[in-house]
Amino acid sequence: MSNLPFFHLVRKSNLKNEKSPLLLMIHGYGSNEQDLFSFSRAIPENFTIVSLRGDIEIQYNGYAWYNISIDYNGNKSYDIEKAKKSRDNILKSLEICKDIYEIDPNNITLMGFSQGAMLVNAVALTYPEKIKNIISLSGAFDPSIINLSNSKYLKKLSFYISHGLNDEILPFDLSKKSLKILDDNSLNYIFEEYPIGHGVSPENFKSMLNWLIEKTN
Fold it and tell me: What is the rounded average pLDDT of the residues 198-214?
């Protein structure tokens, strides 16, 4: 476990003598590994769940995967090179988890929220041969950190994407427009909108969980 690039939490699968699906969780800016891991009590016990913590501490018990800056005019900028490094270290973490645990390499799901969602989207589109499913919550697709693969595995990806209509942190319209990269490449996804802000409602969670169970069986 100490070989992973990030501090992390693990819930092992209850399967015996059988490879399990892996759910790798990537939290949002200013949060930590406990956030998405709180979902684990509702996720079937056959999953191995690993929740990573970003390696940049930005406040007490709050972490990020890359820094975001805001200028005097309110314009945001961020460290693209660090974002790419985090993307690749998330992939490295996935590979190490496959070695440590009895993971089915053909049944791997990434889950990300906000900044974490942008990263899991980038991991999947850059390295699609490593991933089966992606759950992208309150995020977007950022071409700056995506090296779009030309692999045949790109078409085999499945995305569950959701966003709050009233999101003031990462605007709904920005997220929806960013789906163009999926449409342009005829990739498989569902996009759901909810009358909430920057978060996950109970209805959103229920829909996401049903999708996850269906896609991993």
Answer: 97
What whole-number distance in Å separates Cα of residue 103 and Cα of residue 19?
A: 5
**Residue 197 belongs to a domain:** yes
Is 1 part of a structural domain of the chain? no
Q: Where are the beta strands (DSSP E) in 91-208?
A: 103-113, 133-137, 158-164, 188-194
H or E stretch at 24: strand 20-26
Residues 9 and 51: their CA atoms lie apart, in Å, by 5
Q: For residue 38, what pLDDT is reported?
A: 96
Write the pLDDT tens digit of every residue in 41-57. 999 999 999 999 999 99
What is the domain count for the chain?
1
Distance CA(156)–CA(187), nearest Å, equals 8
